[in-house]
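Self-study notes.
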Amino acid sequence: MVTTTEPRRSSRARQESVLSLYKLLQETAIESKPPSKALLDACNRQSTLAKFAQAMNGIVPMSLNTLKQTADECFGDGGWKKIDALRISVLKSARKAEPSLSPLAAARQHAADAERRNDEQFQTRALLYRAYSSALTLANEFAEDKPERIEKIKRLHALYADVFDLRRAK
């Protein structure tokens, strides 16, 4: 038996949540009400929309399958398709509403994004290098008295030296 940390909600509570979600999506997509950042993030994927919660509107998180089933219960066949179409409309309307950047601001944004990506890649490479060095040290400790293993470790080190820029790092 699988236990969950969420209390099981009644069918009525799930239906009210789906109706509230539908109303919120409709207000945002059709009536051009600006979406909150949380709603916009939730609309990026079906599964994140299902996990979206907003207590003040009575929207509770649920699994995607439960959301689809409850939507079909509330709106009949095609209920989920209505909600999904609204989700996509919210995304499209939010993209249209984004202010366009001046060329200078766009260039600055692009440069900042590139710098952030470079920093992330550097951190990842540093972590991989650290793991590689630890594994190499451990392998050398185990291979101290076996020359064939030491030779294999040297070959692997030479193979990955370019990847990690080991020649420059040492």
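Second protein, same conventions, sequence then structure:
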Amino acid sequence: MVRRIFVSLFVVAFLTSCSSKAAEEQPTNRPKASSVELADAETTTTTPPPNKGPIAKRLGDLAGADCADTSFDNCAMTFTITKVTDCTGGYPGDAPPTGTTRKLVWVEIQTGPSYTLTDLPSYLVTRFAAINAAGVTGGDLNPSSRWECAPTQSSIGFGDENWLPNKKYAGAVEIYLPDDAVKITNGDGFWEWALQ
């Protein structure tokens, strides 16, 4: 009986020793955090992360996309909406939908050396939706066809521009702005521009 207890204790001790060595030798799948990784994760703040909500802007503020850091010095693209004005000329097409007014959104765009049309197509800047005072976002504000509300040399924003790296672009985008709009959004809702 003493022999059985001794053998049993020996087996338990051996198995415990093996299992603790195996646990020590097992690689863990948990990533190790470092201050460098955390710093990198916090630096890109000009392009909103998913589920964080849009970035609030005022007319004249600078916005950036695919920025390497928190400044606008190393962005694939920067842009601003400088103003929203009434149409400057006649319009040969139909009147805007009821409850809207034909307006021009004036934009300025600067592409950087890392800009690619594939990653940042022009429509991210030039396609708009509106938000009313209740916070309700409406549909696309851009007319479905080419327009002549802006002077021809100033028209921009058909969504099919072939922008190039290291270039500046500026012009007016025609929209049908709802009469109750207090903001417009672009960048698929990433940026909200207060109209007042």
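Instructor comment on the second fold: Residues 91 and 147 are 7 Å apart (CA to CA).
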